[in-house]
């Protein structure tokens, strides 16, 4: 298998985050050799959006899907697998002080699922943050989240 010329989507990434043994993989303009670590990168347009008014329903859905969670208060550095490389500085600056109290969502392998800009602000000010940590790996969480009937992508697609 040669490096792909087609864009690779997040749901096509290997579960162990490494390029397949059979050949090279092209992802976001970078070619990864077989077995080489490939960081998750999900374009902003593909990130799940969960309406604020259905938070409780969403949490119940995740539990019913077999993904429990814990709520923690921790340092922003705990989430070392920050997958969104390109944050919008204007969006970070626009975060209200009240929004800093809203917990982020994360996976148990320490990837941020929702709240990347709040995470960046907490990191900048070196303040602890609250996080709802789903007890499943990032890819499993993402695949499950998109099964929730009220989730949508940034571009409005289901």
Structure description:
Residues 1-8 have low confidence and may be disordered. It contains four helices and eight strands. It has helices at residues 55-64, 89-93, 116-125, 138-145, and strands at 25-27, 30-32, 48-49, 69-74, 104-107, 112-114, 129-134, 152-153. It has two domains: 1-39, no CATH class; 50-153, Alpha-Beta Complex (Conserved hypothetical protein from pyrococcus furiosus pfu- 392566-001, ParB domain). Strands 4-7-5-6 form a four-stranded mixed beta sheet. Strands 1-2 form a two-stranded antiparallel sheet. The chain is an alpha+beta fold and 158 residues long.
Give the CA-CA distance, first to last residue: 32 Å
Helix-strand string: EEEHEHEEHEHE
What percentage of the residues does DSSP assign to strands (E)? Answer: 15-25%
Sheet with the most strands, sense and barrel status: 4 strands, mixed
Overall morphology: globular
The number of distinct structural domains comes to 2
CATH class of the largest domain: Alpha Beta
Given the structure, what is the number of helices? 4
What is the alpha-carbon Rg in Å? 16 Å
* Oligomer classification: single chain
Helix coverage percent: 10-25%
Report strand order across the widest sheet: 4-7-5-6
Low-confidence stretches: 1-8
SS-based class:
alpha+beta
In the CATH hierarchy, the architecture of the largest domain is Alpha-Beta Complex
Give the number of DSSP strands.
8
Find the CATH topology of the largest domain. Answer: Conserved hypothetical protein from pyrococcus furiosus pfu- 392566-001, ParB domain
The residue-averaged pLDDT reads 77
């Amino acid at each position: 298998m040669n490096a792909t010329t087609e864009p690779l989507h997040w749901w096509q990434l290997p579960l162990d985050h490494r390029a397949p043994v059979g050949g090279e993989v092209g992802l976001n303009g970078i070619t990864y050799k077989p077995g080489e670590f490939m960081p998750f990168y999900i374009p902003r347009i593909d990130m799940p959006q969960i309406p604020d008014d259905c938070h409780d329903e969403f949490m119940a859905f995740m539990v019913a899907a077999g993904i429990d969670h814990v709520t923690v208060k921790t340092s922003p550095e705990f989430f070392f697998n920050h997958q969104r490389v390109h944050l919008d500085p204007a969006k970070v600056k626009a975060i209200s002080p009240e929004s800093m109290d809203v917990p982020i969502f994360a996976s148990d392998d320490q990837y941020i699922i929702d709240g990347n800009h709040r995470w960046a602000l907490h990191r900048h000010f070196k303040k602890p943050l609250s996080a709802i940590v789903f007890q499943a790996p990032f890819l499993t969480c993402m695949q499950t989240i998109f099964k929730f009937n009220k989730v949508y992508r940034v571009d409005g697609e289901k």
